Structures are given as C-alpha cells and as structure tokens.
C-alpha cells in the first residue's frame, strides 16, 4: 500500500542529503561500539550557525533542548506565546513550572506590551518561536531584545526551527548582549534529519554551563552525529529544498487567493490557511486521498484553519489538486 503524503508535520518530504546516508553507511564496527566524539560535528555546526567556539551544545533533537531549558528554569513560571508548538507547555509542565499564556492573534500585531507585563511578573522562562508555528509570522524587530531586557533573570528560549527558511537569526551580538537568551535550532526541517534527532542550543558559554550539567554526556548517537556533519556540509542540497519551499508557498498563496481564503505569508516551510467551517471535512477528504494536512482549529485564534507543509513543489501541486477536488464536491 502506498504511504500517505505527509504534509502535516512540517517535515522535509524530499529527504535528506545523499551524503547523510553515505556517512551512516560508512560507519565501521568499532565506531558503533565506542561513545561518540563530538568535536568535529560541533565545530562544523558552530561554523554553520555562525557561532563562536564553545557557544553550541548539540542535543538529541531540539525537544531535548526544550526540556533541559525548562529544567534549568526551576522553580518558577514559563510564559508561552500562543498559538505555539505544543512541546513548550509539555516541557514546562514536566519541569513543574507554572504556565502563563499570551495570545498572538495572527490578525493582530505581536503582543509586546502584554509580554513585557507577563515577564515583569516574575517569569523564569519565556518560550518564543521566530517565525511562529503555526502562523509563520516573524516576531517584530526589537521585540526579542526588549523581552530579554525586561526579564534579565529569566531564560528566554528563541526557537529558530525555521531559520533556514526565514533567513533570520538571533545568533550574533544579541546573544552576547543578552546573556539570558538561548537560541534553539533543529536539523529536522530544512536538513531532513527528523528521524535521526539532531538539535542544538546556542548561547553564551556561561549561560550554557548549567544546561550542560543537566544534559547526558552522549546525547547524540553516532549515526546522528555523522549524519549531522554530512548534512551541514552539503549546502547545495539545503539550498535546493529552501527554494522548493519558497515556490510551494507561492502556490499555496495563489490557491487561497483563488478560493477567497484568508492566509498568512509564512517565513517557515508551511502555510496557515483559514478554510472556515469546511476545514475538518477538507482534512478528512485529503486523508481519504492519501494526503495528510494539519487541522489547527483547536489552536488559539486558529478556528477553521489548516496548516500545510510547503516543501517539494510536486507534492504541493498534488495537494492543491486534491483540495480543489474536495472543495468542489
């Protein structure tokens, strides 16, 4: 049976670089029997991310990084901007943190004043996503620095899972200026390593030190370490996928405009479209045709909305054709 087309989890449906598979196949029996040495892959990631030596900590997927930051913020309270990646509240709750939610309605401006009030009330952790998931909207320039300055005793985690698509990052002088900032990066989305679980935390070494004490010493298995090294060295493969994603987003915008649906211009590899009352039926109709998209109706301020991965153009074209067929019935 043909597997479904997975456009519901923001994965790279084009697959990883062939160099990744070659690197994994190249492992020898002794390498599999020894604990990994992360020196080479960490240095390669520092170069890729534009971070100085010692400013990058590799993690077993970014999810592990989210958990570690929550544990380091105990005791206290986390502030989450909604709609948001579900793992933020899961990690905060698992660490015993209280959770304050601030709404960012995609039809309105980023709630900077509300965020400043929330963190001034004694937050120990702030989760931000730039660009946001599921809306794809960027956090306005200056907002992250303002939040970090307003909560100097809190850790401010900026999840940059989609930075390869947005072309923006906090990595640089801002991390030195605001020592409470931690940038989270994943190699699941643009690099296609979701199943291999490779992520990173980027911050000043003084900020990373207590996080490193919580992390296990060998978080990445040897396959993930070798795969990550190969992935960041194949820039051409990544650039091709990023270009495909940009073309796919344009196709989805055009579909929404033809149909008169509200949508948001996204800086990620996905697009949020407000279908309205037929959202659930559309998701079900596509699933029956072997195409999976995400119903985000239960997320705050996203009633009637679906999120569609925008990656390989032929996949997007197939999805649009299926949506047209379902909506025409």
Question: How do you describe this structure in short?
Answer:
By secondary structure, this protein is an alpha/beta fold. It has 14 helices and 13 strands. The protein has 2 domains: 5-13 and 236-327, Aspartate Aminotransferase, domain 1 (Alpha-Beta Complex); 18-232, Aspartate Aminotransferase, domain 2 (3-Layer(aba) Sandwich), CATH 3.40.640.10.
Protein traits:
single chain, 329 residues, alpha/beta, Aspartate Aminotransferase, domain 2, 7-stranded mixed sheet, 4-stranded antiparallel sheet, 43% helix
Q: What's the architecture of the largest domain, going by CATH?
A: 3-Layer(aba) Sandwich
Write the CATH homologous superfamily of the largest domain. Answer: Type I PLP-dependent aspartate aminotransferase-like (Major domain)
Our estimate of the beta-strand percent is 15-25%
CATH topology of the largest domain: Aspartate Aminotransferase, domain 2
Instruction: Give the tally of β-strands.
Output: 13
* Rg calculated over all Cα atoms: 20 Å
* Main pleated-sheet profile: 7 strands, mixed
What is the overall shape? Answer: globular
Distance between the termini: 26 Å
Mean pLDDT: 95
Structural class category: alpha/beta
Task: Count up the domains.
Answer: 2
How would you describe this structure to a colleague?
This protein is α/β, with parallel strands linked by helices. The protein folds into 2 domains: 5-13 and 236-327, Alpha-Beta Complex (Aspartate Aminotransferase, domain 1); 18-232, Aspartate Aminotransferase, domain 2, CATH 3.40.640.10. It is built from 14 helices and 13 strands. It has helices at residues 18-25, 29-33, 39-49, 61-72, 87-94, 112-120, 143-150, 163-166, 173-177, 205-214, 222-232, 235-259, 279-288, 313-327; strands spanning 5-6, 56-59, 77-82, 98-103, 125-129, 155-159, 181-186, 199-202, 262-263, 270-274, 291-292, 294-295, 305-309. A 7-stranded mixed β-sheet has the order 2-8-7-6-5-3-4, sandwiched between helices. A 4-stranded antiparallel β-sheet has the order 9-10-13-12, covered by helices on one side. A two-stranded parallel ribbon has the order 1-11. Strand 5 (125-129), helix 7 and strand 6 form a beta-alpha-beta unit. The chain is globular and about 60 Å long. It starts with a strand and ends with a helix.
């Amino acid at each position: 049976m043909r597997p479904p087309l997975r456009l519901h989890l923001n994965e790279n449906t084009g697959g990883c670089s062939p160099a990744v598979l070659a690197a994994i196949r190249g492992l020898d029996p002794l390498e599999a029997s020894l604990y990994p040495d992360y020196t080479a892959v960490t240095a390669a990631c520092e170069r890729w991310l534009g971070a100085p030596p010692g400013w990058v900590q590799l993690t077993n997927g970014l999810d592990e990084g989210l958990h570690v930051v929550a544990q380091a913020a105990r005791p206290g309270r986390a502030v989450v901007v909604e709609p948001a990646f579900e793992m933020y509240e899961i990690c905060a709750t698992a660490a015993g943190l209280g959770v304050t939610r601030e709404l960012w309605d995609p039809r309105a401006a980023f709630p900077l004043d509300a965020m400043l009030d929330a963190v001034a009330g004694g937050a120990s952790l702030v989760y931000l996503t730039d660009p946001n998931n599921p809306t794809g909207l960027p956090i306005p320039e200056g907002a992250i620095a303002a939040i970090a300055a307003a909560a100097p005793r809190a850790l401010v985690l900026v999840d940059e899972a989609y930075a390869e698509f947005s072309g923006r990052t906090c990595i640089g002088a801002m991390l030195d200026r605001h020592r409470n900032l931690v940038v989270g990066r994943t190699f699941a989305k643009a690099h296609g390593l979701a199943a291999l679980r490779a992520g990173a935390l980027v911050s000043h070494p003084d900020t990373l030190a207590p996080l490193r004490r919580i992390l296990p010493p060998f978080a990445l298995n040897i396959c993930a370490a070798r795969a990550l090294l190969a992935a960041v060295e194949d820039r051409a493969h990544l650039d091709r996928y990023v270009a495909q994603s940009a073309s796919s987003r344009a196709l989805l915008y055009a579909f929404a405009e033809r149909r008169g649906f509200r949508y948001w211009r996204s800086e990620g590899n996905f697009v949020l479209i407000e279908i309205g009352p037929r959202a659930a039926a559309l998701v079900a109709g596509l699933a029956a045709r072997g195409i999976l998209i995400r119903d985000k109706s239960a997320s705050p301020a996203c009633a009637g909305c679906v999120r569609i991965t925008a990656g390989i153009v032929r996949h997007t074209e197939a999805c649009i054709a299926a949506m047209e067929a379902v909506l025409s019935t």
